[in-house]
Write a structure and sequence with these properties.
Blueprint lengths: L4 E4 L5 H10 L5 E4 L2 H9 L4 E5 L8 H9 L9 E5 L8 H10 L2 E5 L4 H46 L2 H70 L3 H24 L11 E4 H7 L1 H8 L3 E7 L5 E4 L1 H17 L5 E11 L9 E9 L29 H11 L3 E6 L5 E8 L7 H6 L10 E5 L3 H13 L3 E5 L2 H11 L3 E5 L7 H11 L5 E5 L14 E5 L4 H13 L1
Parallel strand pairs: 1-2, 1-3, 3-4, 4-5, 7-9, 13-14, 13-15, 15-16, 16-17
Antiparallel strand pairs: 6-8, 9-10, 10-12, 11-12
Helix pairs in contact: 2-3, 6-7, 6-13, 9-10, 10-11, 14-15
Length: about 550
């Protein structure tokens, strides 16, 4: 244990690459997820630690500094700090960090493996010399302790029986207090775990319900469009348009509910933060309740960043719910979105979109505000919160290249800021496809594979109305069996089907018709579609409108 090499490199593949290099020298490497984990491993014994400089930028670095400052007299733990390639001088804060690390060697990245190996070998030799000194000091202390114990034994013989009983009683009371404290802490952790499992189960249930609801909305939405197109009665057309608008609102709310059930990796894309917040107004208002006023202010009509839109929605909804819980008697949540430059060295230079959420709630005590972004930390009673909301917010902004900040005063409200790197306006998908979209020539045949009878019927009717020859199948195996006889120009398949899901069907179809265009229709938010780009497959998210269906089919047949 005392010869281990601890690695703290939480971003990218740095930890894996370092461990791979050092393992070749038969080094025992332990990867640590954060500063707290590193400090815990130090308590179990180690020879040296490799730390990337950015890993010390968070709020947990004082835990490591505290351990280093409280080392035994024989110990001067060696640290190798992997710094970024700096153009200018180090900041005062950076120099202070180096000072507090103590016995530290700074290596600037990028560095070659030989430099890394030699630095580790040198640190381990220094640590071994410390262990030798400790061994000599233990021996010396043992002799001294033996003499002290002998003297103490003589003194103890003279102690009164009453004093010995009182001392033992005090020891037992202290041990009992420690045991009760451990039991209480364990009960708190168990309660948080149970609540977290409940939230996970709720997310899975929400995902399943939302998927089925998307199918129902799609049937209503497209049939309302079909009625509006074929009816000559203006009153009927108006009612159909009203039904269509209602399904569009339902689809929007369902999409936001699906945010809770998503488990896929981050999908960083261009996001207009202004449009995203405007689109979330309904669900935020519902979440806050009637006793809380909700107001927004945008410094510009569009403010673009690079983020996972679904995860960003989840972060915003978490902040809204936290604000609601902090204002049980009502109040106001104000959201302001603007553009600012990086205020200090904790963020890379450049412009940022800053979304600021300010409530008039109870605020956060000063002695705990530094811990609010820690996983499982919560000021709410057991059963009222998991302690994961703000840590999710922080993680989402960090993975998008920004950060989250919080200011609060007990009794005077809280302000949370989301800092996200600004980017150029993205060209919309409709603008992109309009440049290549053209009329499909000739009569085309489409094979629809969908297990839901009503959805399949809606698709078949819609495609026929658009002028296509359509055949259908209720499941994947039947659809694959019809490929040879139907000779389709396009395969349209649902993702969630019993037996074979949509991706399985596409993989099998490619073995028969490698050049066959495919559209995958899905109402699931976290469907694994990462391989589909290679298969020349288009994605159609449910619920979709008739124009969206028509465009996707045309583009698939063209491409």
């Amino acid at each position: 244990m005392e010869r281990r090499v601890l690695i703290l490199a939480p971003f990218g593949r740095d930890a894996d690459v370092i461990a791979e290099v050092l393992t070749k020298d038969s080094r025992e490497c332990v990867r640590c997820s954060d500063t707290r984990a590193l400090t815990a491993e130090l308590g179990s014994g180690a020879g040296t630690a490799l730390i990337t400089e950015e890993a010390l930028a968070g709020n947990e670095a004082p835990v490591l500094f505290g351990w280093l400052e409280n080392q035994p007299a024989w110990s001067d733990f060696p640290i190798i700090l992997l710094a970024g390639n700096r153009v200018g001088r180090r900041s005062a804060h950076s120099l202070q960090v180096l000072e507090r690390l103590g016995n530290v060697v700074v290596l600037e990245r990028p560095l070659n493996s030989e430099t890394l190996r030699r630095a580790v070998a040198s640190s381990l030799r220094a640590r071994n010399r410390q262990y030798d000194s400790r061994q000599h000091l233990d021996v010396s202390r043992r002799h001294l302790a033996e003499r002290i114990r002998a003297q103490a034994a003589l003194v103890q013989l003279n102690d009164s029986l009453e004093s010995r009983i009182a001392e033992r009683t005090h020891e037992l009371a202290s041990a009992n207090d420690r045991l009760m404290k451990e039991i209480h802490e364990r009960a708190k952790v168990q309660a948080v775990l149970v609540q977290s499992q409940k939230m996970e189960a709720l997310g899975q249930l929400t995902g399943g319900i939302a998927h089925d609801f998307n199918n129902l909305l799609n049937v209503i939405m497209v049939n309302a469009e079909l009625i509006a197109r074929i009816s000559v009665d203006e009153r009927v057309r108006t009612m159909a348009a009203t039904a269509k608008r209602a399904t569009e609102r339902g689809a929007k709310l369902t999409g936001q509910l699906l945010t809770f059930s998503r488990t896929s990796n981050f999908d960083l894309k261009a996001v207009d933060v202004v449009a995203l917040l405007q689109g979330m107004r309904d669900i935020i208002t519902v979440s806050l309740g009637s006793s809380i006023q909700f107001a927004t202010h945008f410094d510009a009509e569009e403010l673009w960043t690079e983020a996972d839109a679904n995860q960003l929605e989840l972060a915003i909804l978490n902040l809204a719910i936290n604000a609601r819980d902090a204002m049980p008697g009502g109040g106001k949540l104000a959201v302001r979105v603007g553009q600012r430059v990086a205020p200090d060295s904790t963020l890379a230079d450049g412009a940022y979109v800053v979304a600021e959420f300010s409530d008039t709630g109870t605020g956060i005590p000063a002695d705990v505000i530094s811990r609010v972004f820690d996983p499982f930390f919560t000021t709410k009673p057991i059963g009222k919160g998991t302690g994961l909301g703000l840590s999710q917010v922080y993680g989402i902004t960090r993975q998008a290249g920004g950060t989250a900040r919080i200011e609060s005063e007990e009794g005077r409200g809280t302000t949370v800021q989301l800092w996200l790197p600004i980017r150029e306006r993205a060209v919309s998908e409709s603008e992109t496809v309009s440049a290549v979209e053209q009329k499909v020539e000739g009569i085309k045949r489409i094979l629809v594979v969908e297990d839901d009878n009503e959805v399949r019927g809606m698709l078949v009717d819609s495609l026929k109305m658009l002028g296509y020859v359509v055949t259908e199948a209720p499941d994947g195996r039947t659809g694959l069996g019809r490929l040879a006889g139907d000779h389709p120009d396009l395969l349209m398949v649902d993702f969630a089907m019993p037996g074979m899901n949509g991706i399985d069907v596409i993989a099998a179809a490619r073995k028969v018709r490698d050049d066959l265009p495919v559209i995958l229709a899905t109402g699931y938010a976290d469907a694994d579609i990462s391989r589909l780009a290679v298969w020349r497959c288009s994605i159609l998210r449910k619920p979709f409108q008739l124009d969206e269906l028509a465009r996707t089919v045309r583009l698939s047949l063209i491409g």
